[in-house]
Amino acid sequence: MQIVILGATGQVGQALLSQLPSAYRVLTPSHSEVDFLVPGAISAYLDQSAANLVINCVAYNQVDKAESETALAQRINALAVEEIVNTCARLHIPLVHFSTDYVFPGKPALSTEQPYLEAEAPGPVNFYGQSKYLGEQAALSVPANLVLRVSWVFSEFARNMGQQIANQALQGKILQVATDQFGSPTYAGHIAEVVWALVPELLAGAEGGLYHLSGNEAVSRFQLAQAIVDELILQARVGSAYALVATTQAQWIASTTSPIAQRPNFSALGCAHLAERLGRPLKSWRVGLAALVAGI
Ligand SMILES: NC(=O)C1=CN([C@@H]2O[C@H](COP(=O)(O)OP(=O)(O)OC[C@H]3O[C@@H](n4cnc5c(N)ncnc54)[C@H](OP(=O)(O)O)[C@@H]3O)[C@@H](O)[C@H]2O)C=CC1
Ligand SMILES: Cc1cn([C@H]2C[C@H](O)[C@@H](COP(=O)(O)OP(=O)(O)O[C@H]3O[C@@H](C)C(=O)[C@@H](O)[C@H]3O)O2)c(=O)[nH]c1=O
């Protein structure tokens, strides 16, 4: 079986490759080989690929910049996804695609809120979320396609918020982190595990659908950063006296000079639906902390 992974240099792409089951041959075209900004490039590549399944990890992920670079975000997160969906449908092969918690407007910033379920109405509050919403809806127009909404992804691969926090702490910088934004962190290695568990069903013709996939626990940005610092201390990478400074989103926005997009206050994802399909509970995001820190 031949699988095409688009965006294999990103953190989810690298996690998928690091756990690639030996049963599959994989093609990983580079950004320049299949540039999502070039209409027709994706279909031309997939047409000659002899793929049995496509996994799309490409995204325009810069939440703040997306507010001004709307055409770029729209092209990569929505229009290019439509092109993948149409090509996969014509070739009669399934697509695995990723969406985000930022399709939701957010609930009040309280750790006691119930995580979002798939049945709840989206309503993005920023352009990144809006473009991802259009992309996921295009993918879901074909029943064979699987869309996994993931959130606050971190890993030992590529650039991500977890690495940013760890690097700043390692440099001894004072790190101010918001206590009033809640979400569910997701370890990219766990995303890969789940994808490879579901691929055999998809290849056998099972329906895809929409599922939430996260580390199954709502925490604040501050709690996530604290967990990373605790791991740095545990691995003796920073001294035990290192302390984070609690802040609020409003203070964080006020302290930055560049324009900031609005973000949901609480966007944790509830994963019971996916756990049922997998026949096992989702793993905690905390399983990825040791790998994150060891990789820096
Ligand atoms: N990161 C996060 O916190 C979250 C991510 N997601 C979703 O998960 C999925 C995977 O994200 P993640 O792995 O973090 O993303 P990354 O930002 O780590 O990787 C993005 C990938 O897209 C590629 N890419 C960017 N622009 C183009 C283009 N014009 N043409 C072709 N390739 C391009 C990059 O290639 P190169 O590096 O070579 O330029 C890279 O391989 C995405 O759908 C994302 O929206 C959802 C929620 C949270
Ligand atoms: C870097 C930093 C962030 N923050 C807080 C404030 C702000 O709300 C939020 C922004 O951080 P980031 O820019 O890293 O996060 P952001 O880019 O908004 O992260 C999102 O990325 C996209 C791709 C997704 O799909 C989402 O699931 C989510 O992971 O974190 C701090 O409080 N202190 C800091 O030093």
Automatic annotation (TrEMBL):
Binds 1 Mg(2+) ion per monomer. Gene3D superfamilies: NAD(P)-binding Rossmann-like Domain, UDP-galactose 4-epimerase, domain 1. Transmembrane segments: none annotated. Its EC number is 1.1.1.133. The keyword Oxidoreductase applies. Keywords: NADP, Oxidoreductase. This is dTDP-4-dehydrorhamnose reductase. It catalyses: dTDP-beta-L-rhamnose + NADP(+) = dTDP-4-dehydro-beta-L-rhamnose + NADPH + H(+). Pathway: Carbohydrate biosynthesis; dTDP-L-rhamnose biosynthesis. Pfam families: RmlD_sub_bind. Belongs to the dTDP-4-dehydrorhamnose reductase family. GO terms for molecular function: dTDP-4-dehydrorhamnose reductase activity. The keyword Oxidoreductase applies.
